[in-house]
Amino acid sequence: MSSDAITSDIVISQTYLPHNGKDAAIAFYRDVLGFEVQQEVGYNDLYWITVAPPAQPEIGIVLTPPAVDPGVTDEERRTVTEMMAKGTYAAINLATKDLDATFARIQAADADVVQEPMDQPYGVRDCAFRDPAGNTIRIKQA
């Protein structure tokens, strides 16, 4: 490999998180986190929602039913469901300018608190919640 720096014009467009209830997902991401609902799509028995922070509308979070790929076995679906219930299947890291105010607002909405704001030994101040599907939402001080 050459010593020239590699540059790229690739950017993050979307990421995926599972949801198991569209109304609860929309209520959490729109009404609690303040994200905008960009798209709601129903297709056969599936339903997915794209949300994004107002300050970053070009980066969407697609909330999609878990383990719907036809190649996923029933046993794998059960495992995914169990992991979601424990909050160990999926996560996303977010950032805010005022962590304490953001934490208070989300906590007041009765979100499932995993960790109150704290200074981590690796230099980050953050907190964590679970969304209605069990996904871990970690928020750090920007």
Give your account of this protein's structure:
The chain is an alpha/beta fold and 142 residues long. It has a single domain, classed as 2,3-Dihydroxybiphenyl 1,2-Dioxygenase, domain 1 (Roll). 24% of the residues lie in helices and 36% in strands. The chain has helices at 22-32, 74-86, 99-108; strands at residues 14-18, 36-43, 46-52, 60-64, 91-96, 112-119, 125-130, 136-141. The strands form 2 sheets. Strands 1-4-3-2 form a 4-stranded mixed beta sheet, covered by helices on one side. A 4-stranded mixed beta sheet has the order 5-8-7-6, covered by helices on one side.
Describe the protein's topology.
Blueprint: E1 14-18, H1 22-32, E2 36-43, E3 46-52, E4 60-64, H2 74-86, E5 91-96, H3 99-108, E6 112-119, E7 125-130, E8 136-141
Parallel strand pairs: 1-4, 5-8
Antiparallel strand pairs: 2-3, 3-4, 6-7, 7-8
InterPro entries: Glyas_Bleomycin-R_OHBP_Dase (IPR029068), Glyas_Fos-R_dOase_dom (IPR004360), VOC_core (IPR037523)
Domain VOC: 11-142
